[in-house]
Amino acid sequence: MKKIILSLCCLTALTAQAQHEFTIQAKKPVAEVKPTMYGIFFEDINFGADGGLYAELVENRSFEYPDALMGWEAFGNVSIDQQQPAFERNPHYAVLREADHPDRRTGLENHGYFGMGLRQGMHYELSFYARTHGDKATLRIELVNSQNNAMQKEKFEIAGKEWKKYTLSLTPNTTDGKGFLRLMLGSKEGLDLDHVSLMPGDNWNGLRADLVKDLEDLHPGIFRFPGGCIVEGTNLGERYQWKNTIGPAENRPLNKTRWSCTMQDRIFPNYFQSLGLGFYEFFLLAEKIGAAPLPILSCGLACQFQNKDDDPTAHCPVNELQPFIDDALDLIAFANGDVSTKWGKVRAEMGHPAPFNLRFIGIGNEQWGELYPPHLEPFIKAIREKYPDIQIVGTSGPSASGQRFDYGWEQMRRLKVDLVDEHYYMAPEWFLANADRYDKYPRKGPKVFAGEYAAHGKERHNDFEAALSEAAFMTGLERNADVVSMATYAPLFAHVDGWQWRPDLIWFDNLKSFRSPNWYVQQLYGLYKGTHALSLTENKLAVTGQDGLYASAVCDKAKGSYYVKIANTADTEQAITLTFKGAKALTGGEIITLHAGMKAVNSLEAPAAVTPKTQPLTASGTQAEVKIGPKTFAVVKLQ
Predict the structure, then answer these.
(1) Catalytic residue, candidates 64, 366, 465, 470
(2) Cα–Cα distance, 336 to 288 (Å, whole number)
């Protein structure tokens, strides 16, 4: 009997412990939630641009890789030349001549990036530039499946010794994720060939439609591009230079990427940047998905992870920074300038006469130490003088704490930047322990931009454990909306066959993509960010991990809605009474939950293994009763 009584007492105690009462001050907003609060960070890593978001299927389409035929399989009589090129900044082209025997052929095959994803019934636009060595030549064109069987064959006549663009629509009769393109000389007369492009018919301004949809459905408020470490370059000559990324794609020069050989166990010597996805396309994409653009530019420092601070050849001296500063000023003019201005005219000629309404610019990626402030300062002076309404983002370096971090913040305050970019790739336990990180921050001075973050478990997978810890941490971002103005998970994309870094928000192959559990956390925050943060407390304290619970609340004044985010990291279900102090009678709503095993992941084979579930929720007066299951993230929506 004593054992039974003891068990009942323990059960009662546990039940009492699991009952919580959260008080939300419904009519006393503590801060505005900026529209930019949650967003996306794009860097060309993991074949995120070429082979990913950029829809081009042909690798090394302009024959500009250091090995000009890398990405191509040549047979017969093929060579590379650059005499009288079609494009000044991409001068190399392929020369196809008759093979050395009547029974042999001359041609090229291109397998794209880990194969070409070809869909049955989809129209693909093939385009190329060509000229003949005589009057006329014939080019045989084939789309080929992974079994080496032609899905479509066409013969195309090339006429004239001057460079000319040719286009042809191709339609595969089957779907194949590892198809390829074959081009063969079909005449005795030879020809020159350049900028061979194959684009799916459903591309959006040159971007892959399904991946654009993955971004749009996040409802991001801010879009940071193009990085990331590629902003800096392994050396300054390889930094990302925005002026090389505008104008006709055919004449955008190739650039090396920092990520081809950096990760020694994930080497991809064929990883370059065609820059077909450039700043103009980034601005267009930001506009489409409803996000404010945030370009990041070089401050004249090459990647400090790869170069010593005291190497005089690695970094630009402060007194020679003017070309870098001009790039920043010219970018603002390109984005916002009137069509009568030099750079506004360039934008208009590309097809967008209206300004892009740029409001933010970042100078430097994750620089640190004494080199950075004197490099940043002249940018600030020049931008403030010419464009005083532009908000400037500086950085506190690559760490979440420590001497470099403290020094970075000290200098950013001294220089009076508008936002400070913080980065943290940490274990899930760190995210749980730091949900109150911004509760302690000064309320005056630069705002926080959590510009790169992700929970890294031991295997660094996009599992639910990582997603739940990020959801818990983000309650602290929301609660401190007066301090934190922006947050972007990183990295964004990864090709399943070509990744260097994980975890990543969205994974894809050549035909389809899947959204990670982390993606759904980001989406739920983006969908229900509200307009104003509200005080949410239990026993007059913010809910930052007590009994494994993390919580925040916002309202949407325009919609008359309340959104409460709750992460239950405990092993037991927890019952919670939500009291909206000062609110009118609630009419009800719904509760959206995300739950799975801690190691659960989504995949190409099971893309919906971890997805949110929605149930109706009733309310009584100004209260609602909810039960949050163990290891669950929930969003409570009430009217």
Answers:
(1) 366
(2) 17
Q: Are 539 and 587 in contact, with CB atoms under 8 Å apart? A: no
> In sequence order, which residues have a C-beta less than 8 Å from that of residue 416 and are 6 or more positions away?
380, 446
Token couple for 74: 């040549």
**Whole-model pTM above 0.85?**
yes
Q: Which of 378, 404, 379, 230 is CA-nearest to residue 302?
A: 230
What is the number of residues in the chain?
639
Answer left, alpha or beta for residue 290, where phi above 0 means left and psi between -120 and 50 means alpha: left
Pairing of strands 632-638, 589-595: antiparallel
| DSSP classification of residue 470 | H
3-state class percentages of the chain: helix first, strand second, coil last, to nearest 5: 20, 35, 45
Helix (H) or strand (E) holding 484: strand 484-489
Structure tokens at 153: 């064959």
Three-state DSSP string of 37-73: CEEEECCCCCCCCECCCECCCCCCCCCCCCCCCCCEE
pLDDT along the chain (639 residues), means of 10: 35 52 96 98 98 98 98 98 98 97 95 98 98 96 97 96 97 97 97 98 98 98 96 95 97 95 91 98 98 98 94 94 98 98 98 98 97 98 98 97 98 98 98 98 97 96 98 98 98 98 98 98 98 98 98 97 98 98 95 98 98 97 97 97
366 is catalytic: yes
CA 443 vs CA 30, 404, 477: distances in Å = 12, 22, 13
Give the count of beta carbons closer than 10 Å to the beta carbon of residue 188.
Answer: 12
Q: Which two tokens stand for residue 219?
A: 């409802």
CB 337 within 8 A of CB 343: yes
The helix (H) or strand (E) run that includes residue 263 is none
**Residue pair 516/16 in contact by the 8 Å Cβ criterion:** no
